[in-house]
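Example (one chain per record):
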Amino acid sequence: MITRLLVANRGEIARRVFRTCRSLGIETVAVFSDADAGSPHVAEADFAVRLRGAKPADTYLDIERIVAACQAAGADAVHPGYGFLSENADFAQAVLDAGVVWVGPPPESIAAMGSKIEAKRLMSEAGVPVLPSLSAAVTEFPVLVKASAGGGGRGMRVVRDAGELDREIASARRESEAAFGDGTVFVEPLLEGARHVEVQVLADRHGTVWALGERECSIQRRHQKVVEECPSPGITQRIRDELCAAAVRAARKIGYVGAGTVEFLVKGDQVAFLEMNTRLQVEHPVTELVYGVDLVRLQIEVAEGKALSGSAPVPKGHAVEVRLYAEDGDYLPQTGTLRRFEVPGDVRVDSGVEAGSVVSPHYDAMLAKVVAHGSSREEAVRKLTTALRHAQIHGLTTNRDLLLKVLKNRDFRAGDTHTGFLDEHDLSGTGPIDELAVLAAALAQAAANRAAAPVLRSLPSGWRNVRSQPLRAVFHEAEAVYQPLPDGIELITAEPSRIVLERGGVRHAFEIAHYDGKVCVDSPSGSVELTPAPRLPEPVEQVAPGSLLAPMPGSVLRVEVEPGDRVVKGQAVLVLEAMKMEHQIAAPADGVVSGVHVEKGQQVEAGAVLAIIQEGNA
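Predicted structure:
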C-alpha cells in the first residue's frame, strides 16, 4: 500500500497528482529545480527535494538525482507525470530497482513503445493499421519527420520539398536529443486533412483492459495540441468501435498495465496508428469528466495491485479542454511574472501557476488547462467560451484570444476539424480594440491620479480654470478623450479599479488593474492590455537598421552565418532554443551579414541584437 508518493515532474501535472493523493490520504513529495523554487507545486507538497540547476538535463531528466530524492524523502512510490522521464524505460527500471513502486506501465512496455519505429512494427503484428516508414531516399512529398522517442510535437517537422529534408531531419534530431536524450528520427507520409484521434486505455495486472472512448485532438500548432474534446464530433460509431478495438489490441500486445493512450490519424474511413503514449496525457481531464473517473486514482490503485472492477463506465455528455499558453500571436513563448490569474465559471482549471508565478524560459509555456463539461457539445463549448472571456490573466501575453476564436469558429462549431485547422483558418489577427475599454482605462487612470493627489483630491482630474482643450489619454495601442465624455456615454462609477459606463441605456462594467507601465481592462466583452504613453518619453537605445532581435529569452543553439556572408530572404541565420523548442531566426530580406553579435551557447534576453543584415549587395 502506497503511503508517500514522489511526483517526478513539475507544475500543473504535479499539482494534479497531489490533489488525488490528498483525497487518498497519501503523503506527497515534490522535486524542484532552482527556477521552480517558488512554484505552487513545491508549496503544496508535504515534502520537497531540491534539484540544483535549472536546465531539464540537470534536474527533471536526471535519473540518479530523482531516485536519490525519492530515497532521501522516504517515498515508497513514484508517479512520472507526463513529459520529462515519463516514457523512459531506464527510469522506470531504476525506480523499481530501488525498491519503490512505479505508478506506470512495466519498463518492457515503455521500451516497446518508446521507439516509434519499433512500435509501428509491433502494432502491425497486432493488426493495428500503420503508415509505412520511408527510406532516406524520399521521392514523394509532403512527408513528416518524427522523433522516435518522446512526444508533444518535439522533434517533428513537416517537409514539402526535397531541398529541405536534410536540414529538417538534422533539426528534428537536435530537438529530440535535447528533449528526450535520443536523437533518432524517421520519416513517414504526411496524411493531410486528417483528424488526430486518440483512445484512452486502462489496464490492470489481472488481464482487464478498458478503452475509455476517444478524444479529438486535431487543433494543433507546432504539432502540439491546443484544443481537445471527448468524444470526437466527427467520426462514425463504426470508426469509434474500430479505434477502441485497435487500442485494446495494442495494449494487450505489449502487456500494458496502467493508463496509456493510443493515437491515430483518421481521414474518412482510413485509420492509421500514430504512436502509443505510455503515460497519462495532458488532455486526460476530458475523459475523466465524460466517464466520471479519476484516472490518477485508478493509476495508483492498479500500481497497488488492485483489479479494475467490472466493465468500463458509460460516457455521459461532452467535455472540451483548451491549453492556455504564455505565447504571442506567432506562437513564440513568453516569459515574465503572472500578475493575476482568475478563471471563473463552471469549468475545471488545472494550472501550474498562480498570481505571482514567474514563467521562465527553461520549461514549457503552458499556464493551465481549462475544461468544461456539459450534457451536449454545444453546452460545453458555451461554458468554456464564457469562462475564457471572463478570465483575468494579467502580466503575460497568452493565447486566450486565439482559443476564443477557435471556439467561436463556424467550422469548429460544426465539428469540422483536422490537423491543419489553424493553417487553414486565419485566426491570428487581433481586431479593433474596444473603444469603451480604452475610455474606461483613461477614466480609471484619471481616478487613480486624483486618489494619489496629495491635495485637492475633490477636484476633477486635469481641472483648469479655463478649459481650452479636451482631456485625452494616450496609450501606445489607442487613445481616448475622457473629458468631455463622448456623446451618448454617461459615467456611472469612476474608481481606480472599477468603471461603469452607460451607452444607449445599457450599462457596461469594467475592472481595471494598474501595473508598472501597463493597464489591464477586463469586462464581459473580453480583456484589453494597454501601455500608457509617457508625456516626456525617455531616450531609447537605437538599433542599427537590419538588426535581428531575439524574439524571446533563450540560448543560442547554432549560428549559421559569418560576417560577410550573403543571405537570401528566409535563410536561417541562427537558431535559438527556448522552452525545449528550436526557433529559427531567418533573414528578413536578401543582403549581406554585416555583423554577428552572439555565439553558440550564449544566453540572450528578449530584444537583444543577434545579427545585422545589410540589405542589397553591400
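Caption: Residues 51 and 65 are 7 Å apart (CA to CA).
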